[in-house]
Amino acid sequence: MADNTEKQDMAWKAIGGLLGLATAWGARKVIGFAWEKVTGRKAPIDNESLDTGLGEAIGYAVVMGVGMQVTQIVVARTARKRYDAWRAVKAAAKDVTG
């Protein structure tokens, strides 16, 4: 049983890692797109550029940080719930079939 639990934990770690990468990429694209629509300017990606005002750079950093963290929390919790439900169904099916 412990070996099976270790395999499930490794599977969850792999799934979680891939979800983290996909979530970060997607959130960055969506937040950058929303920033352009709201401000009418490209997102200030280069932190050292003097073409971007300090206030705008800090504002973008705050929006990006909060947006990325909220997105990752929501996706991770949703994925964990789905994964746990899938494991429960799989365990129940195993108990029924013997």
Characterise this structure.
The protein has 98 residues and is mainly alpha-helical. Helix content is 84%, strand content 0%. Helix 1 (2-39) runs antiparallel to helix 2 (54-97). The longest helix has 44 residues, at 54-97. The chain is elongated, with a radius of gyration of 20 Å. The mean pLDDT is 84.
Question: Characteristics of this structure?
Answer:
mainly alpha; 98 residues; 84% helix
Kindly summarize this structure in a few lines.
The chain is mostly helical and 98 residues long. It has helices spanning 2-39, 54-97. Helix content is 84%, strand content 0%.
Low-confidence segments, ≥5 residues, pLDDT <50?
none
* Biggest pleated-sheet summary: none
Secondary-structure-based class equals mainly alpha
Our estimate of the beta-strand percent is under 5%
Relative helix content: over 70%
What is the strand and helix layout of this fold?
Layout: H1 2-39, H2 54-97
Helix pairs in contact: 1-2
